[in-house]
């Protein structure tokens, strides 16, 4: 069982515009626009007039008001669903990021939950087993196939795997994705016959099974005003988000038979780090350690927490909490353009500088 502590948004990639919704008091009516348009046509509105209206909509939240008032139509009769508004909608045209749903009801994808757990495991492996001797021991079992990687990692300037990662990121012709791919391969599992790359079949995390949650009642969803704090004045963003207090169930289990069968096939630093440890215990220790550290930064008092979804921030989605302690981090951050002020296009001195707050709360905290 999981409980939402602060507003949680996991998007489906869609945005609702004033064509799709109508504000009514303290609620948003998400419209069945096909039904509304059919009724407008039936009541005598010309097709060309409607097409022109939709091509060039007025810049207002109450886009449909003219037709609804003129023809005495109640927007509630055209509701697909309606949600409470937490905050204040702007006066002009706005967009609302939609929450992921099945059959009209929100749910938590297993991939989102597993991704949050995976980040915590990456953090713990790098923290506990990322020193150069341990990494060399883990990779050295595979002979010549990992020789080039080992030589690079054992450069005199590197104390641990993150030093190598920062060096790799700092190279002139390397994109961040390439460096991330190398780190993922070293930690979670790799093939090295032709080129060194991540191999999912060799990743022990495949034994962690995380199912989608059960569908969550729609009355747990609201529209939240989200402010980006740190750049001075900012344009608010609106999202559909689960309310604090929402509870949901999702199955999380370890396939121990898969772990047993794959024991001679798995590789990478995680598998090496697990020697003598129970996989499931290691995973939940990782979650406790990583999100316990992050919770302190957000003044979250609850224990046994995890963070996921949109607005949770760069530190929660990465091992940035370890990277920022590194001597070479600032140089690499500037090279990658992290922390660029959108107003001035300059790299800020302090990073991360901004937070997304929904009704003044940091987003995405869940109690396990």
Automatic annotation (TrEMBL):
GO terms for biological process: defense response to virus. It comes from Pyrococcus horikoshii. NCBIfam families: cas_TM1807_csm5. Residues 2-315 form the CRISPR type III-associated protein domain. Pfam families: RAMPs. One of its GO terms (molecular function) is RNA binding. The lineage of its organism: Archaea, Methanobacteriati, Methanobacteriota, Thermococci, Thermococcales. The keyword RNA-binding applies. Keywords: Antiviral defense, RNA-binding. Belongs to the CRISPR-associated Csm5 family. This subunit might be involved in maturation of a crRNA intermediate to its mature form. Transmembrane segments: none annotated. This is CRISPR system Cms protein Csm5.
């Amino acid at each position: 069982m999981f409980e939402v502590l602060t507003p949680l948004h996991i998007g489906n990639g869609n945005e609702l515009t004033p064509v799709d919704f109508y504000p009514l008091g303290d609620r948003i009516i998400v419209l069945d626009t096909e039904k509304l348009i059919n009724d407008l046509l039936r009541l005598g509105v010309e097709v060309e007039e409607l097409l022109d209206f939709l091509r060039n909509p007025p810049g207002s939240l109450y886009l449909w008001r003219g037709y609804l008032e003129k023809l005495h139509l109640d927007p509630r009769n055209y509701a697909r669903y309606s949600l409470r508004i937490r905050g204040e909608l702007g006066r002009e045209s706005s967009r609302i990021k939609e929450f992921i749903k099945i059959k009209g009801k929100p749910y938590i994808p297993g991939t989102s939950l597993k991704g949050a757990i995976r980040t915590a495991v990456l953090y713990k492996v790098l923290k506990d087993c990322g020193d150069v001797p341990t990494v060399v021991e883990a990779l050295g079992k595979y002979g010549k196939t990992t020789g080039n990687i080992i030589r690079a990692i054992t450069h005199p300037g590197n104390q641990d795997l993150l030093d190598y990662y920062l060096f790799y990121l700092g190279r002139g012709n390397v994109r961040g994705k390439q460096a991330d791919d190398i780190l993922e391969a070293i930690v979670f599992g790799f093939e090295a016959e032709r080129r060194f790359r991540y191999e999912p079949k060799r990743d022990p995390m495949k034994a962690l099974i995380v199912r989608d949650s059960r569908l969550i009642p729609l009355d747990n969803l609201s529209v939240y005003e989200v402010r980006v704090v740190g750049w001075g004045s900012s344009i608010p963003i609106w999202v559909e988000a689960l309310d604090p207090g929402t509870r949901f169930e999702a199955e999380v289990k370890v396939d121990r038979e898969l772990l047993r069968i794959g024991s001679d096939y798995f590789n990478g630093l995680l598998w090496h780090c697990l020697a003598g440890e129970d996989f499931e215990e290691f995973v939940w220790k990782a979650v406790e350690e990583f999100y316990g550290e992050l919770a302190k930064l957000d003044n979250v008092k609850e224990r046994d927490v995890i963070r996921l979804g949109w607005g949770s921030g760069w530190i929660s989605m990465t091992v940035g909490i370890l990277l920022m302690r590194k001597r070479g981090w600032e140089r690499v951050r500037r090279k990658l353009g992290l922390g660029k002020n959108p107003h001035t296009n300059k790299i800020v001195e302090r990073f991360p500088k901004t937070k997304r707050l929904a009704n003044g709360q940091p987003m995405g905290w869940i109690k396990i």
